[in-house]
Amino acid sequence: MPETKDCNGNVLADGDSVQLNKDLKLKGSSANYKIGTVFKNIRLTADTETIECRDGKTTLVLKTIFLKKRN
């Protein structure tokens, strides 16, 4: 099974914390997320290039190329 990796090649697992490495504007929303924003308790998806995370009550699906693992 392929592993889900962040932009630096670190393997991601369910429950990890990740940090944005680029400012992102979400489609269909007025929300903007700045570089350095941390998302905790991520969930892996069937696609190795995306993860799910929550921001308040909103569930986001983010591409792993914009994320780095936070220790």
Output the strand order for the largest sheet: 4-1-8
Helix content: under 10%
Query: Termini, distance in Å?
Result: 24 Å
What is the gyration radius calculated from CA atoms? Answer: 11 Å
Quick one: overall form?
Answer: globular
Biggest sheet character: 3 strands, antiparallel
- Give the mean pLDDT: 94
- What would you call the structural class? mainly beta
Number of helices: 0
Q: Which spans have pLDDT < 50 for at least 5 consecutive residues?
A: none
Oligomer description = single chain
Secondary-structure element series: EEEEEEEE
- According to DSSP, the number of beta strands is 8
Strand % is 35-45%
Give your account of this protein's structure.
There is one protein chain. The model has no long low-confidence stretch (mean pLDDT 94). The radius of gyration is 11 Å and the shape is globular. It contains no helices and eight strands. The chain has strands spanning 17-20, 24-25, 32-33, 38-39, 43-44, 50-55, 58-63, 67-70. Strands 4-1-8 form a three-stranded antiparallel sheet, with no helix packed on it. Strands 5-6-7 form a three-stranded antiparallel sheet, with no helix packed on it. A two-stranded antiparallel ribbon has the order 2-3. The termini are far apart. With 71 residues, it is mainly β.
